[in-house]
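Sample entry (387 residues):
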Amino acid sequence: MTLPRRDFFARLGGLALASRWGAFTGPETGNEKAAPLETGAHAQASVIRPVGYAIIGLGRVSLGQFLPGLQFARHARPVALVSGSRGKAEIIARRYGVAPQRIYNYDNFDRIADDPAIEAVYVALPNSMHAEFTERAARAGKHVLCEKPMATSVADAEAMIAACRRARRRLMIAYRCQYDPVTRRLRKLARGGELGRLQIINAHYGFDISPFYTVMGVTRPEWRLNHAMSGGGPLVDVGIYCLNGSRFVSGEEPAGVTATKSVAGHDPRFRSVDENLAWTFHFPSGLLAACSTSYGCNMGEAMQVIGGEGRLRLAPAFGYASQKLAGFTRTGQVHYGPHDPGPQQFAAEADHLAECIRHNRAPFTPGEEGLRDMRWIEKIYQATQRI
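Predicted structure, serialized as tokens:
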């Protein structure tokens, strides 16, 4: 596969993505206004020089979603890989046209400072490593797109923000669903009063986790079941979608929280992390958000928003593709759910940060958004009663 051919189809994919993605303007963050994610005809007329990304960590999300997604991106491309396995990185480098000299490991990572082709990094490592590599990337003069959860502690999240601020580099947290057009439609209807006064949000996301996972034929123990590496159980992995989604859709910050967690029986998978966790956010307006998450059962994924004059259900709600919205508002029935293949959501994220870099704007989901979730995660754990 030659580079011109790959780039040609990548641009075609990017144009197709642009025709489906809805424009929006982000909230203000500090003294800056977040950059709009502009698509459609305007975006096609506003071509910018692509930003080169180094992908840090060649695991499930990088190989299954982010790198395939960059083939649909208009303003982003992979130029470097960072991995503890040189052999695996060489295979991936050939697949995506990355030069062998731009394969780094975790020890020589700081040499990216001398590589001008790398302008941003995508951090897709175990949660406990997010802070270290975000700070190292900032010191190397690179912008950062970091997977959620942002870190494993509030202190680490604050340090990440400070490091990027000192280096004058952008820090964006990969809240993919905030870039999804179906989720944004729910947000617009809920915030716009189409449901009347919001009363209840119900959200859940969980699955039956395996103690092992396999990537490129290599099977390892599941790091998400190791508290030292993950920072928590299902809450920080998939429950965070419910947490962030209730804040995002409602437009409110909770005033308080109650929570409960459990381990059913004596399942050896859950020696250091929770199996089940449920919490309720209490918002200043009177809205309640009842959320639950699990590593012990395939509970699926959904978010229901109920108001005095309508009810909407997003299901599937948080996965990589095919979100669908259905229900009714005070003005009629709602059925909305264009099918966007999963990697395109990752293309939207990568393109958005690229546009922010080129136009010197704050991203729609900056480090401060990740820090807010980290603070609520901490409060949920503090409020948790074990049964």
